[in-house]
Design brief:
2 domains, globular, two-stranded antiparallel ribbon, 7-stranded antiparallel β-sheet, alpha+beta, single chain
């Protein structure tokens, strides 16, 4: 659980990072930014507000964790906060080297040192690394010759953080705990922020396991039922989500008995699960604590609507036995029969 309400921005460095492919270079500051109270409040909102309950990551390196650049620079800052500016320059140079894809946008890089941050009940320091890539146009109105003038200015929207990460000074031995955001790139080049620059991987906690299992259930439903069996597909996913919603702990035997139910379906799911875990390189856990936040976020991506031509939408939220698919030979049309007690 993250609590950043009392966080205090103590130090801030700003640099400009261009694109290597376009030979845009870097513009490195010579000192830290002086932070006034009013600006500190705006910056705190801009930097920290987007980070809510979400998946956490850890730093990674194939051979030695100390060789992960950001892990190394963050450790140096946590050991000596007065080195924040020096290490911010190293972080800026590392980001520039990682910005080689032609689609990566140039932008300002912010490195902030915070204290009074809380993660899972522990008060820790946080190193924040943020990048702004997109500018919005704002209207500026000002007094002029007894009236007003108006002009457009390009600026940063403090409600739209493009890229960011928070490195929490806890569990250093296993790669710290890192929260990450990337709202600008969704294609392959976007991975430079997570893989090339930060080199992080998901922390295998309850959020991670819950999210993976619900993703597994969604994909299995697509595989297990043909396109014509949309009701069964939706019902299976709804039943799985209901199971995760009402349980505190996940147990594979309970899950199979309550969700999959039929022996043939249980066997089919087990085979699909093995393939899913191998393909996606995720570990197999048959018992773990369920993350309610992961369940809540997974619900947002669940489609429970059957669209019939351009005339009707059928919302399926449960009671699979009360909706029956059929076919009318006389009309040569597919049908759904719905059974209900009350109309509202």
């Amino acid at each position: 659980m993250l609590n950043l309400k009392e966080a205090q921005l103590k130090q801030l460095a700003i640099h400009f990072i261009g694109n290597v492919a376009d030979e845009e270079g870097m513009q490195l500051s010579k000192n830290l930014v002086s932070i006034e109270d009013e600006i500190a409040t705006l910056l705190k909102s801009y930097f920290l507000k987007p980070f809510k309950e979400q998946e956490l990551y850890t730093f990674h390196h194939e051979s030695n964790l100390d060789l992960n650049e950001i892990y190394h620079y963050a450790s140096a800052i946590f050991n000596d906060p007065d080195s924040t500016f020096l290490q911010s320059v190293n972080i800026a140079k590392h980001l520039y080297e990682a910005s080689s894809h032609p689609n990566i946008k140039a932008g300002e890089l912010y490195i902030g040192y915070f204290d009074e941050c809380v993660i899972n009940g522990e008060v820790v320091e946080v190193l924040g690394i943020f990048k702004s890539e997109n500018k919005d146009t704002y209207l500026k109105v000002y007094p002029k010759a007894g009236g007003f003038g108006i002009e457009g200015e390009a600026g940063i929207n403090i409600n739209k953080l493009d890229k960011g990460c928070l490195i929490f000074n806890t569990e250093k031995e296993s790669g710290y705990r890192v929260a990450v955001i990337d709202n600008t790139n969704k294609s392959s080049e976007a991975q430079y922020w997570i893989t090339q620059f930060l080199n992080i991987r998901p922390n295998e906690d309850s959020y991670y396991h819950t999210k993976n299992y619900l993703s597994l259930c969604k994909e299995f439903a697509e595989e297990a039922f043909p396109e014509s069996d949309k009701v069964d597909k939706i019902d299976l996913v709804n039943t799985a989500v209901e199971f995760f919603s009402k349980k505190e702990e996940f147990n594979i035997e309970e899950f199979n008995n309550e969700v999959m139910q039929e022996p043939s379906m249980i066997e089919k799911f087990q085979q699909y699960k093995d393939t899913f875990q191998e393909t996606n390189d995720v570990p197999s856990y048959d018992e773990f604590e369920i993350s309610k936040q992961a369940v809540k976020q997974s619900k947002r991506g669940i489609k429970s609507v059957i669209k019939l031509d351009k005339n009707f939408h059928v919302y399926v939220h449960g009671n699979r036995q009360n909706i029956v698919r059929g076919y009318d030979e006389q009309l040569d049309m597919n049908t759904y029969t719905l059974y209900f007690k009350e109309e509202s």
